[in-house]
Hints:
Blueprint: E1 2-3, H1 18-24, E2 32-34, E3 37-45, E4 52-57, E5 63-65, E6 76-78, E7 84-90, E8 97-103, E9 110-111, E10 120-126, E11 132-139, E12 143-150, E13 156-161, E14 165-170, E15 177-181, E16 191-195, E17 201-205, E18 217-222, E19 230-235, E20 242-247, E21 253-255, E22 263-268, E23 274-281, E24 284-291, E25 297-300, E26 306-312, E27 318-323, E28 330-333, E29 338-340, E30 354-360, E31 363-370, E32 379-385, H2 399-406, E33 410-415, H3 424-428, H4 436-451, E34 455-465, H5 467-478, E35 485-489, H6 495-501, H7 504-514, H8 522-528, E36 541-546, H9 554-566, E37 571-576, H10 585-603
Parallel strand pairs: 1-37, 32-33, 32-34, 34-35, 35-36, 36-37
Antiparallel strand pairs: 2-3, 3-4, 4-5, 6-7, 7-8, 8-9, 10-11, 11-12, 12-13, 14-15, 15-16, 16-17, 18-19, 19-20, 20-21, 22-23, 23-24, 24-25, 26-27, 27-28, 28-29, 30-31, 31-33
Helix pairs in contact: 1-2
Amino acid sequence: MTESNGAPRGAGGGSMPDWEKRFRAPRVSLPDWAEDAPDRSLFVSNATGTYELYAWDRATGEQRRATDRPNGTTDGVLSPDGEWIWWFSDKDGDEFGVWLRQPFGGGDDVPAVDGLEASYPAGLAIGRDGSTAVVGRSTDEDGTTIHVVRGGGAPEEIYRHRESAGVGDLSHDGTLIAIEHTEHGDAMHSALRVVRPDGTTVAELDDTKGGTQELGLEVLGFAPVDGDTRLLVGHQRRGRWEPMVWDVASGEETGLSLDLPGDVSAEWYPDGSALLVAHSFEARSDLWRYEFGSGALTRVETPPGTVSGATARPDGSVEYLWSSAAEPSVVRSTSGGVVLDPPGLKAPVSVPVEDVWVEGPGGRIHALVQKPAGTTGPLPTVFEVHGGPTWHDSDSFAAGPAAWVDHGYAVVRVNYRGSTGYGREWTDALKHRVGLIELEDVSAVREWAVSSGLADPDRLVLAGGSWGGYLTLLGVGTQPDVWAVGLAAVPVADYVTAYHDEMEALKALDRTLFGGTPEEVPDRFTASSPLTYVDEVKAPVYVSAGVKDPRCPIRQIDNYVDRLAARGATHEVYRYDAGHGSLVVEERIKQVRLELDFAARHLS
């Protein structure tokens, strides 16, 4: 066993390589803006080397760093009146903390809600008066509770349940609160409840009842008009995510005729007369405007690639965060030009992504491939497996895969069963045989990569973070003769211990995936746990872990690593003082260096 120290072989001097520039280049998120003070915005940037919240006064152009913590800050909300920045303060990335707030123009941070102890966050909605808020919180002891705070007074509990729930939205006039909940025990498919600020129920919507299909709902937002009781809702009634309008006062449900393939989401234009539609299909996305009066659907022009977020401004323009696999992310506006262009180093471009479709045991699998320009196979190939699992890889810029391409590797990313963006059945397919189903799809794409001449079968790397890290450890154990190297970041390694140590919301998800607890369905947890197969592992394994991670806790990783060490298996482990990943640029670069070096040493 080797404990990595962050100084790998060959990491010395010389000019900065392109892969490192991509991590160091300043990046910004899509700015959030105050509903009643649209010149005031809040965004996240890594300009100082750590991801922090920034206040931006568009009228004056002034940008001010609002938070400054050693391990970074990304969870923040701007009050609708633009007077306050609320931000979530945890300890070194453990995700357990309290909401603080500070004046938009600067000043001391103060507790946003007196009387609420530290917890995991479960949603937040702030009223237009700036002094009313709906705060969701989750703890292992209480499950989920939701509280209303008025005018700085004591919080009033309006909701409590052992299963996962969260604050969806607060109506424009503050009289209605939308809650997403999983009281039925299915953490993958939420139901909706609308209540008054005193907690009394106004309306319920539950698509998990009355049928054999498991269908979910999500809150997309109340209409931005006083007295308007329309709630925009995402549903899965036609096998994919689509929006509809639910009038919570009358109960009327209005479906929208959007003839678009793939998943569709939406948000209101500020005057409530139209919707900004976000459309995702086969790893790309685009934007549309839907008019309520005419039913017209008009494209909002964006370049080919991926729109990671978008918002409609009061003047009717749309701001959006865009990138492609080849081109770094940028915040643009349909009114022309770049909205935020941070000064300093610019991220070098990478290579475009190629689409591959492979027949698999559960249907056609979509994979995205990048390789060094001008090269032909067979190449050393990294199968970079995405996390989630309810997520998907897209034609968007990612510094990690670009780093591998710079070092001569092909990179293959597989949108396995469990991924979003390919319909409800594809996303929901991984239940009970958790992990094993995803790896069947990875195997099918791996066979294509080798038979096509792209990948060198003796130099295959399985890599990923979070759920991707879990699949990496499970893969090198269940397919020991296939993979030459395994690189697992913040993984699930010992699923039974992980279940008992993880945050309550993830326990609920695991019960849904497996059909029960480790005590109720022990065979399923055993079959899906990397620890079960640790003695079969042949490939050198590199593991990185945050010691304060509440999602993939350190104890279960130590259990796995100890088993590798006991049998003298080749491995290295790197522990760092943060949670489920790091918000510090230098730390991210350090971890990529370690992975690149580990792979180079064991593939030579």
